[in-house]
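Researcher: Here's a chain I'd like modeled. Treat it as a single chain, no partners, no ligands.
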Amino acid sequence: MATKKHSWSYDNVGGTTRVKIATGADIAHLAELDLKKWTVLSCPTAGLDIDEKSLKFIDADSDGRIRVNDVISTSQWLVSVVKDADLLVKGVSEIDVESFNQESADGKRLYNSAKQILVNLGKEGSVVSLADTKDISAIFAKTRFNGDGVITAQTSEVPEEQAVVTAIVNALGGVMDRCGENGVNAELIEKFYQLLADYKAWSEAAVEAPYGADTDKAIEVYNALDAKVKDYFVRAKLASFSPESVMKLDVQTGVIEAISADNLTAKTEEIAACPIARITGMADLDLNAAINPAWASQFKTLVSIVKPKEKVLTEESWAAIGSTFADYNAWKAAKKGAEVEALGIDAIKQMLADDRKQALLDLVAKDLELKETADGIDLVDKFLHIYRDFYRLLCNYVTFRDFYTKDKNVKAIFQSGRLLIDQRECRLCMNVADMAKHNAMAPASGMYLVYCDCTTKVSPAKRSIVAAITVGDVGDLFVGKNAIYFDNDGLMWDAVITKIIDNPISVGQAFWSPYRRMAKTVENLINKSAAEKDAAMMKDADAKINAVPATKPAEGETKAPSQPFDIAKFAGIFAAIGMAVGMLGSALVSIFNGLFKLEWWQMVMVFVGLMLVISGPAMILAWMKLRRRNIAPLLNANGWAINASSKVSIPFGETLTDIAKFPKMKLKDPFAKRGLPAWAKWLISLVVVAVVVAGLWLGNILSSVGYPSPLSRFNKQQDVEVVEAAGDEAAVDEAAVAPDVTDGVEAEPVAPAAE
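Model: Modeled as a single isolated chain. C-alpha cells:
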C-alpha cells in the first residue's frame, strides 16, 4: 500500500511563495520536499548568529558547510529520538526526559544519560537543559568513574595506588579526565612500569666510573676540548716539519690587532678560534704553559680531575685519557627509563616490589564499564544544541521567515548587528569574509551599501561588515566617516566607512538627485575656475618677480616705442558681448512675457512640468531599481547558495533602517543670529515685491497682461482725428495723409476711410 504524501502549506514571504514549516510533521517529511522549493541549498557554519557548536553537530561531514542532505539527516534523527515531533518547533534549550523515544536506540541512550546527569548533579525533577550539560566536569565532579578510561588519584581509595598515579602524572604528564583533573589511562600505566623495570636493569649493570663522581664532568670537558687539543698537535707536527711556518701556525697578530680596540669580552668567538696554546715547534703541550683564555678554565678543570703524572701532555696521553671513558660512555649510552630517573633508584625498586600495576588497570577497566553512559552524556549535549537551534535554522534555510518578519526583535541568522550612523540605525548588517567577492557581486543587489572596518579594545581582531541603508537620504555619508557598530552580543565596535556602493535609497531621494548633481557640477566648475585663475595669477606674479631687470639701452640705441591702444582691435569683442547681452535680455523678456500671459494655475503646471522633466527619469529609474533590490548577491558573496528570490521591497526596506524622530517643538537656538522682527521682515518683503512689480510695469513687461508702461518711450501710438462722413473729401484726404507729430515722433500714415 502506497504511503500518503505529506500535504505542504505555503505562505507569501518577501513577495515570494515559499513552503511553510510550522509543525513537527513538516520537519519529519523534509526529505520529500522538492529541492527547487528550498530557499537555500547550502550555507557556511561560521559567521552566523547561531551557536557554531550546533552547526558543527548538523554538519555531519565536517566540511564547514550545511547542505540540504545535512538538514534532512538531522531532521530524521531528531524525529526518531522524541515521542512528539511538534516539540521540535519550540526552539527551547530544555526537555523532559520522558519525552525521549525509548523505542529507538539513541532515544534510549538519551533517556538513560539524561537521568544520569540529573543524578550526578543532584537535581530533582525530570527536566534536563543545556545549562546542565555545559560543564561536563561538573557532572562527573562527584563520581569516581565516568567512562572515559582515565583514573585520577581520587579514583583509588588505596594510598599506595594514589602515590603511583601521582608519580605517573609527574613523570609522563598524564591525560585529562572528564572531571577536569590530570589522570592516567591503561597505556600510561603499562609504560610507567616498563620504564621502572628498564631503569632498574640498567642501573644494576652500571660500569665503574674511572674518576668517581667527577667522571661525568671530566667527560663533558674532554669532549669540549678534544677537537682543539688535536688541532694543537697537528700544528705542532707541522711546525716541527717546517720551522719557517711557525709564525703562520701560531696566533696571528693581525687577528689580535683587528679586535684589540673593541671590548674583548664580546670577542670570545675570535679568541677561541686561535690555537689552544702557542706554537713553539715543540711536539708536546706543556701543562705549565699559558693556555688560550677562551679554553683555560675548562683545560684546568680537566687536568685537576685526571691528574696526569707528566709535566707535558702528549698526543698519546690525550688519547689514553679518552679511552678511559669508553666503557663508561657505552653504559651511559644504553641508558633506559630516564623518564623515571628523578624518582630515585630506591623508590623505583620499592614501586616494583609493591607492584600496583594490575590494581590500577582494574580501576581503568571499571571506569570503562560506564563508557556508553558517559558517551551518552555527550549525546545529550549534542541533542540539546540541535533541539534548540534546528527550527531557527529551518526558518532561515527552507524559508526566510526570520528575515521578513515584522518583529524587530527577531533577526535572520545572517544579520550580524546594528550600525548607528548619520542619525540612522541600520539593522541589515552582515559580516564580510571575502571583500573581493563582495566587490564583484554586491553591486547587483541594487541597494545602497556601506562597508566598514570595525575595531574594539576588547579584542585585537578586526572585523569587516556591510550595512544596507534603505531609508532616508544620502546625507553626510562618505568614505572615512566614523560610526558605531553593535554586534549581536551587545559589544560596541568603532566603525569606519571604507567603501560605498551608491544605489537609490528612496524615490524622494532620487527626485532631488539631479539638482544635487547639478549643484555639485557647478561647485566643481567654480572651484576649478578659481583654482585655475589662482594658479595663473601666481604664475604671472612669480614670472614678474623672477624676471631679469630691464637693462638700460646702450648709447646710440633707441628704445622701441610702445604700441598705442587700438580700439579697433576690440571692436569685434565689444560687439559680440553687446549682442550676447541683447540676445539674453530678449530671451528673458520673451520667457517672462510668455509666463505672464498664463493663468496662475498654468504657471504652477509649467513649474511642475519642468521639475518632472528634470527629476522624472531619475525617479523612474530609482523606482525600478528599488523594486529589484535583492540580498541574494550579498549572501552569495558570503558563501550562501540562494535558491529563491530574496527581494527587499520599498515598504519592507523601511523596516530595516530607523531614522531619528524628534517631536514637533518650537525651540529657540541661544546662539542663533538675531535678525529683524517679524513685522520688519514682512515689510521688507512687501517693499521688495512692490519694487519688482513696479520695475516689470515700468519696463512694459506687464503690457501683455493689460498693464502697459506709463512711460512715453513705450507709447508710440498716434492720435488720429476721426472725420465725419459728411465732411469735405479733400479735408478727409488731407487729414488722412497729414502727419501728426507727437513728442517729435512722426506718426505712421493712416489709411483713408472707406467711402
